[in-house]
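Dear all,

This email documents one entry for the complex benchmark we are building for the journal club exercise. For each entry we list the sequence lines for every component of the assembly. Then comes the predicted three-dimensional structure of the complex as a token string, followed by one or two observations. Please use this as the template for your own entries, and keep the labels exactly as they appear.
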Amino acid sequence: MHINAYADKYIIEHILFMKEKPHSFWIQKAIALAKQGQTPFGALLVNTKDEFITAYNTTKLNGPTAHAEMNVIRQMHLLDYTETKTLRLYTSVEPCPMCMSAIVWAGIGSVIYGASIDDAAKYGKQIHVNSSEIVSKSWLSIQIIHHIERSLCLELFE
Amino acid sequence: MHINAYADKYIIEHILFMKEKPHSFWIQKAIALAKQGQTPFGALLVNTKDEFITAYNTTKLNGPTAHAEMNVIRQMHLLDYTETKTLRLYTSVEPCPMCMSAIVWAGIGSVIYGASIDDAAKYGKQIHVNSSEIVSKSWLSIQIIHHIERSLCLELFE
């Protein structure tokens, strides 16, 4: 099949644009945030223009509600968006039911995580209600993508 | 059955002490807070000396995580306690899974509420994971007492 030069260029640029920032790019950013905060937990909220806000776990400083995901959701007014469902939340570890319920209340459309709650439970206490269960008991449909850079995220616990 | 004067007095004082601030006293305070915030949701965190901190829902002002229970837990450092399990959280409506998970992370020992999530679901969207289920999936034993002044709490939705 022949594709002319213009079409070639268009297709390549489109692919490059689509592939420019894959999920692993953002999860690696979440990992860097986790390390910055000296915890296993980093999170980003990203809009359709790939503008983003960041947070890490600050429970030692700010108390038990200051998980990375909660901290980033509390800043979401700083991000430019018209519909919350267009936002993606990236996090090094699957949101606990506190954070996942906050994601539901916030109406965020996609969640992408690295290690799972079951993974994290090998290193500390967890509430064993996974993110998809919270969504299934809500009024929303939220896309959940799991195990992106899982092994790198697991290394954060060690 | 004969009870002597001293025993009578002791029993009565004990009852009076126990009854001085029954659960309904605190739930009525939660109801007053809810009305103050012009939402159905008010909460208090109380220590063993009956010192307490208060909050109501401020989601309109502070975003989706600002439920009454979250707002009160974020202030818990202001309260005097040695063990978090001695604290009681009173709330006009059963904590949603975000708030109940926060209560677990905070290690609060008792939760007392008025209306249930099922009650509240008649008036708006809810995540249908009840407070006892969150506790059962955690590492903690938390006392949950429900339906205190339920009808007064339900009136807050009307």
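Observations: Chain B touches chain A through 30 residues (CB under 8 Å). Residues 5-20 of chain B form the longest helix (16 residues).
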